[in-house]
Amino acid sequence: MSGKNIHSEPFDNGTITKLEIFEDYAQAWIPTFVMQPRFGEIHIFDFFSGPGYDSNNIPGSPIRILNKINEQLGNILQSKTKIVLHLNEFEPNLKAQKKFELLKKNCEEFILLNPKFKYFLTVNYYNENAEDLFFKLLPTIQEFPSLVYLDQNGVKFISQEYVDELEKLNTTDFIYFVSSSFFKRYGKTEEFKKALEIEIEELESEEYRNMHRLVFNKINSRLPENSELKLFPFSIKKNANIYGIIFGAKNYAAVDKFLKIAWKRNNLNGEADFDIDEDKTKIQLDMFEGKKMTKIEKFKNDLESKLLENTSVTNKQVLMYTYANGHIPQHAVDLLKQMKKEGKLDYEGKSPFLNYENVFRKYNIVNYKIIK
Ligand SMILES: C[S@@+](CC[C@H](N)C(=O)[O-])C[C@H]1O[C@@H](n2cnc3c(N)ncnc32)[C@H](O)[C@@H]1O
């Protein structure tokens, strides 16, 4: 066996999309904590690390995380934040754990090339079944600000027992990978039913492109009624299959970061690496059916109706509505400015001050007056 890797094939485009979203989120998440020395120690968990590279030496999740840590070196050294990286790789039913050996070798090589890592980075390697390791590491996940990646093959980790534990955590952001369209084929099997119970009729009536949304909605509906956990989906098409990411966090800073990453990847829907609602065709006027609204147009339309039901609304209320609907603040800002121009709404100054920074960090709460 030569080379860095034994992933038998190169990563496909869908996998690259997933890995880029993982690393974009690490890039946004790490500075949140290293810019504030009070956190002291942060933990990143990659429960399904793989060997580190694909067959073309394209980095996988653990090397991408290390790269993102490397990019923040200056800030990390300055704030003296400790980073603990937990990397796990396990091939069930195999005696020789070659991927795990490669994972260790590849990460150790990377770390040797970056000698400053020794001042702040600890890497814990595990060669264990993630199903058990998850529960073993839960106390650590609970104790520190944590970022958890669950890049599974399949669907097992969306089962209630794992989501329940993640739901209880307050300073943890997590990203799942789920083979959602497999439910269409295997939804009746015990393994899939154990992960998530979806009625056969629902599976059969739902359009294929919406399979990840269906899985996502089921998981969301299983959360306790007053849960503060906020979940968001991102569908990924790989050949004939629909996979997807599920992002979860309790705080709005995390939500803001994830939604910005998602909308930057796809400014049509912020929710898929393809045109999931055929918005491109909706942009063109439909002569027979009338114009259909795109996702952004529908959001603005609904928000305008909501605003017009009131006499006064705060920027915080609008921002929370915007996040809850999976949109970025800019979409609401565009509408507010337009409504002001049309004399339907008023606020002082030029800007509606509608962003995370103003509302949640500076507590700059602004009232919008609805003009009747
Ligand atoms: C989708 S791949 C993850 C790829 C990886 N994140 C990367 O970027 O290359 C899933 C990985 O989990 C490993 N795996 C499968 N079952 C596992 C289990 N029960 N516990 C831990 N790892 C497992 C597989 O060997 C495989 O390398």
TrEMBL record:
Superkingdom of this protein's organism: Bacteria
- Give start and end of each GMT-like wHTH domain: 274-350
NCBIfam families attached to this UniProt entry: tcm_partner (TIGR04474)
Q: What is this protein called?
A: Three-Cys-motif partner protein TcmP
Gene coding for it: tcmP
